[in-house]
Design brief:
alpha/beta; Rossmann fold; 2 domains; twelve-stranded mixed sheet; 9 helices; 12 strands; globular; acyltransferase; transferase; methionine biosynthesis; HST_MetA
Length: 312
């Protein structure tokens, strides 16, 4: 897959070692085609780890994808070198006058924080409102899905009593929906959140297409009728050891977390977990890029306002 990212980005060597086709800018220019312009708003503290996870999923497509990394503000972070942020990330002011084919907004460790108490809540609102007129399709992941529901449907924050952590069984609700094309009737996906996404609640208070649910985890996947907003409440991007690292971190902080569900063989934390969600994650992102972005976006992004968005 031709995914175009800076050669010096740490993800480049990782993806190449996995036999993922990372294209140089010179080779991309020689192809004479317009790549999809995708903006990744990375809200996670460990930005290098998260950007690599999402770039891996964006690589599973025959389309050429040009990814730009966006940060929410210029506050220093202890989890990512400042040089990395200065070199590879853009501020919103640098992109606000441009149009993009796709926008991905990642999760954030804000499960128990009220929206009005989030330090960058005004910036999130600004970017999500901007996306309505500048982005063909936006993919909201985990916390971002909850934030998107608040901004698009004015839904209040709903929180579970205990953290949802583990790999959960889901079933699809419309095998003919473009986002679900190629999906098995049931599949597994990781969750790590306090947010509550009740299927009944979303059905009553939104016009979203509910695409996939879990009896225990609630709604996993939903989309607006025009596919311009897609909500993923879990973490298809997670590496096999991400839930383990979160679990061990919480234990070291004295939080006494529950063992992630359906994750360790026989619930033995000394045994290596096995990824059971990888193929579904790649297919989800491939479908989003194809059916929600590529099939919908104008060839010339300068004519974005003239684009028509269909429901098929």
């Amino acid at each position: 897959m031709p995914i175009k990212i800076p050669d010096r980005l740490p993800a480049t060597d990782i993806l190449r070692s996995e036999n993922i086709f990372v294209m140089t800018e010179a080779r991309a220019a020689s192809q004479g085609i317009r790549p999809l312009k995708v903006l990744l708003l990375n809200l996670m503290p460990k930005k290098i780890e998260t950007e690599t996870q999402f770039l891996r999923l964006l690589s599973n497509s025959p389309l050429q994808v040009d990814v730009e990394l966006l940060r929410i503000d210029n506050r220093p972070t202890k989890n990512t070198p400042q040089e990395h942020l200065d070199t590879f990330y853009r501020q919103f002011e640098m992109v606000k006058d441009r149009n993009f084919d796709g926008l991905i907004v990642t999760g954030a460790p804000l499960g128990l924080v009220q929206f009005e108490d989030v330090l960058y809540w005004e910036e999130i609102q600004l970017i999500m409102n901007w996306a309505k007129d500048h982005v063909t399709s936006t993919l909201f992941v985990c916390w971002a899905a909850q934030a998107g529901l608040k901004l698009l449907y004015d839904l209040p924050k709903r929180t579970r009593k205990e953290k949802l952590s583990g790999v959960y069984h889901h079933r699809i609700h419309d095998c003919h929906h473009p986002v679900l094309r190629g999906f098995d009737d049931t599949f597994f996906a990781p969750h790590s959140r306090y947010a509550d996404f009740s299927a009944d609640y979303l059905s009553k208070h939104t016009d979203l297409d509910i695409l996939a649910t879990s009896d225990k985890a609630g709604v996993y996947l939903a989309a607006t009728k025009d596919k311009r907003n897609v909500f993923v409440t879990g973490h298809p991007e997670y590496d096999v050891d991400t839930l383990h690292n979160e679990f061990m971190r919480d234990r070291e902080q004295g939080m006494e977390p529950a063992i992630p569900v359906n994750y360790y063989p026989d619930d033995d934390i000394n045994r290596d977990p096995v990824a059971s969600w990888r193929s579904h994650g790649h297919l989800l992102f491939s479908n989003w890029l194809n059916y929600c972005v590529y099939q919908q976006t104008p060839y010339d992004l300068a004519h974005f306002s003239e684009a028509s968005f269909t429901k098929d």
